[in-house]
Amino acid sequence: MILSKADSYIFKLLKILLAACLATPFLASASFIFPYTVPKVFAFRILVEIAAVLYLYLALKYSRSLLPTLKKGGWGGFLSLSVLAFFALNLLSALFGADFYTSWWGNLER
């Protein structure tokens, strides 16, 4: 896959953001009520959301090589089916939970 110069910078930034996610367990700050959970969660969610936007941009632009497909054999089909099964089981557990909204979205205390 040949990327343009700007897209190669985006791809490098995506790798850096995903690597930075590995450093979030080391974050702590005494300025929050929950100093050991809140900074980790805020940093991780922000990094993952920025990385998701960059990945979606690249995946839509280069859809043949970055988006997994449901063809027979290979990891692309397995990955797609695994994600679909995860969301289906998550929806099923939310439907049978006490409160659908809390079961689906969760919270930090969960």
Architecture blueprint of SSEs:
Blueprint: H1 5-21, H2 38-61, H3 63-66, H4 74-95, H5 100-105
Task: Please explain how this structure is put together.
With 110 residues, the protein is an all-alpha fold. It has helices at residues 5-21, 38-61, 63-66, 74-95, 100-105. α1 (5-21) packs antiparallel against α2. The chain is flat and about 45 Å long.
Q: How does the major sheet shape up?
A: none
Helix percent band: 55-70%
User: Could you tell me the radius of gyration in angstroms?
Assistant: 18 Å
Mean pLDDT: 85
| Spatial separation of the terminal alpha carbons | 42 Å
Number of strands: 0
Q: In sequence order, what are the helices and strands, one letter per element? A: HHHHH
Low-confidence stretches: none
The percent range for strand residues is under 5%
Going by helix content, strand content and strand pairing, the class is mainly alpha
**What spatial form do the alpha-carbon principal axes imply?**
flat
Give the number of helices: 5
